[in-house]
């Protein structure tokens, strides 16, 4: 936001300088009686020292990527597993897990659980009605502890996708 403000201010200064130079050139007394073409205005770009370069632009096709918040989650056996309500990232901004609102009926009696991002499969999400597949059973998710913000979280991983800890020698 700060950079945008500097950019707008810079543009206003350049516009003001252009008008001022143009007006000053028109007010200069003529040295001869000959008709001369009006002098052209000079534009001096003024840029603050801390101005950021323009952002890069990437175009992603409508069928190549989709949002996940609010998406239904189903098991491989096509059981209703809930819907994604949040995405957990680490300090570097890497996506680590998804929070799923699981169980209940119409939001009553549901609870939030956390699943490893790698346990989710996004094979067919061409439109909002397509669901995401979770590589866990309904019984595994039902046994998971509830997620509460600002407390340590237990992240469920898909069978076989988590690597065991290496013994320290």
How are the SSEs placed, and which strands pair?
Blueprint: H1 2-27, E1 72-75, E2 80-89, E3 95-102, E4 111-116, E5 120-121, E6 132-134, H2 138-142, E7 155-156
Parallel strand pairs: 1-6, 4-7
Antiparallel strand pairs: 1-2, 2-3, 3-4, 5-6
Care to describe what's here?
The protein starts with a helix and ends in a 13-residue tail after the last strand. It contains two helices and seven strands. The chain is elongated, with a radius of gyration of 30 Å. It has two domains: 55 residues; 85 residues, PRC-barrel domain (SH3 type barrels), CATH 2.30.30. A hairpin with a 4-residue loop joins strand 1 and strand 2.
Mean pLDDT: 74
Biggest beta sheet attributes: 7 strands, mixed
Instruction: Please bin the fraction of helical residues.
Output: 10-25%
The count of helical stretches stands at 2
Gross geometry: elongated
Helix/strand-derived class?
alpha/beta
Order of strands, main sheet, comes to 5-6-1-2-3-4-7
The helix-strand sequence is HEEEEEEHE
Number of domains: 2
Q: What is the second-level CATH architecture of the largest domain? A: Roll
The total beta strand count reads: 7
Strand content: 15-25%
Q: Report how far apart the termini are.
A: 51 Å
Determine the CATH superfamily of the largest domain: PRC-barrel domain
CATH topology of the largest domain: SH3 type barrels
Give the low-confidence spans.
Answer: 1-22, 162-169
Radius of gyration: 30 Å
Highest CATH level, the class of the largest domain? Mainly Beta
